[in-house]
Amino acid sequence: MTVVNRDSAPHTVTATGDKMFDTGSIAGDSTATFTAPSASGSYSYICTIHPNMEGTLTVG
Length: 60
Ligand SMILES: [Cu+2]
What we know:
By secondary structure, this protein is an all-beta fold.
């Protein structure tokens, strides 16, 4: 899947726990792709640069 960093600062999309996905650092105003888990479920992720930034990836 593709994610877009619309901020000027770099961020990551990094799965918590078993780290099933990790974009690494995405530069500001850039895109990154990663392979989403194939199993349905909710996967928590954070930005490793700013660990207070968190979200959930839902695979239907
Ligand atoms: Cu960040």
